[in-house]
Design a protein that fits this description.
Distance between the termini: 16 Å
Oligomer: single chain
CATH topology of the largest domain: Amidase signature (AS) enzymes
Radius of gyration: 21 Å
Strand content: 5-15%
CATH class of the largest domain: Alpha Beta
Number of domains: 2
Amino acid sequence: MIGEYEDYDGLALGELVKKGEVEPRELLETAIKKVETLNPQLNAVVHTFYDRARIMSQNDLPDGPFKGVPFLLKDLIDNFQGEPIFMGSRGIRYVPTENSELVNRYLRAGVVPFGKTNTPELGLTITTEPKAHGPAHNPWRRGFSTGGSSGGSACAVAARMVPMASGSDGGGSIRFPAACCGVFGLKPSRGLNPLGPELGDGWDGAVSAHVLTRSVRDSAAMLDLTAGPEIGAPYQVAKDPNGYLASVGQDPGRLRIAFSKKPFIETAVHPEAVKGLEETARLLESLGHHVEEADPVMDRSVIWRDFTVVVTSHVAAVGELVKRELGREAFNKLEPTTLSMAMIGRSLTGCDLVQARMGWHDVQLAMGRFLTNYDVFLTPTLVSPPMPHGTVMPNPVEEVSMNVTSRAPVGRILMKIGFVKLFSNKTLSKMGFTLVGNITGLPGMSVPLHQTRDGLPLGMLFTGRMCDEATLFRLAGQLEKAKPWAHLKPQLP
């Protein structure tokens, strides 16, 4: 089964189970064998619960389209009752007493979770290299980043451990690793998938959650099963009444598509990213779409600052929660970057946060107006190809500096003199195309349409109108047919 398993997506495996051609336990044992064989090289999975999954696979599973399909959960906000949560941290460990609502919906789809995937501490950066678990390796090249923060999930899907795994995205954390690992990753519209009951809206609405997949239809089918309001949610967002899976095979019609090579954070764009963008624009034109170069009008000089203010404010709040619930010792075990971000957040004022949110509204308005003239906005997902490990992580000298400055609330001063921008630029500049999707709450998908000359993936990012995932899925289905990627897979033993 193991050879065939690699070639099936989740819906196809679920269909085999439905027809009685394979048992869920057989699929699970195949997935476990894949993890046990590949994970020592890749470090995508950081916690397993095989025996629990075996019992699940032998009991009556919900009769969903993914019945019996092996599944991995990101070790961040996907609480699975009784299984520890580490959040990529040396200082955090707790065991939830109930499932997250999104996990409940995954379970009703029929999947069988059997492990947790690697993530950077608190999901705070766009590479998966936590001190707690060590780096996840890109399956296309060891020693290179999987992206983050859903890097372990993207790696596991690309390496064919599982056909899909869960992820979350606060600044690019589904789309970024999808682009690095050559898989499909959709960030849904703000509020479309639930984050509760633990969260209302993560990072003031920046965070969305969904799965990373190899096929477009798996992503669409899962969104059909997970999208919709929950009790206590701050947003009551209606799902598409016609269904997302139905959209995948439909003709998208002639779309008006704007494309741009201009990132929202001041940074250079690698020639490979530009090459992928231009090739994709030509492909879209050949499919009959109207494609033109255009940029939304907004003040790009302040986007980094407003994003930093909001995110560090939330990191400060989480830091205080860690101290209160887990103790000072746990807080002190947080990584220097996390402690530094918490210090910045503590030093800011409520006025700073409100002004940053006002800046977010300006970006939302600009993108909303821009998308009245276009159906979709195309950019590269990444400003450059996947990075070697250590590229964006602080070096020892920088870590010492962060540890020293984290002890005093001097963040506003450091922001004013440009110190924060200097140190954060290594990370934020890499998010030059993705973070606006989180600020605005607009849906976006990274589609694996380009490989560099060196054979590394570099996805292309399509951003749509609010709650118009259907158009994105129609377009993605068309692209998957026109330029298939299912046959592209890393050369692993």
